[in-house]
Write a structure and sequence with these properties.
mainly alpha; Arc Repressor Mutant, subunit A; 4 helices; globular
């Protein structure tokens, strides 16, 4: 029986190196998504603190929206999450893929 249960960590390392727990994640009613909060949610999912489905439900995100945050972090780190820089990083990434 124990093999079938998912073991979750009590905390994961956040984007700035700080420990993240379910209590220290952004509140579920968050409406203003700054770079740090987006990165914390991505780090929580990547570290196993939340599943993708739980994060989407908790924060009322679409799967596509969360996936775009995850891609931005993978490609460009936290700066890639800045709304004003998305197009810049997207075109930079596309140019890199051509070569």
């Amino acid at each position: 029986m124990i093999e079938n249960q998912k073991i979750r960590p009590a905390q994961v390392v956040g984007p700035l190196g700080e420990p993240l727990t379910l209590e220290t994640l952004p509140p579920p009613n968050t409406t203003r998504w700054v770079v740090r909060r987006k990165a914390e949610v991505v780090a929580a999912v990547n570290g196993g603190l939340l599943t993708v489905d739980e994060a989407c439900e908790r924060y009322s995100l679409t799967l596509e929206e969360f996936a775009s945050w995850q891609r931005a972090v993978d490609r460009s780190g936290m700066p890639g999450l800045r709304v004003t820089r998305i197009q810049h990083y997207k075109s930079l990434y596309e140019r890199q893929q051509r070569f």
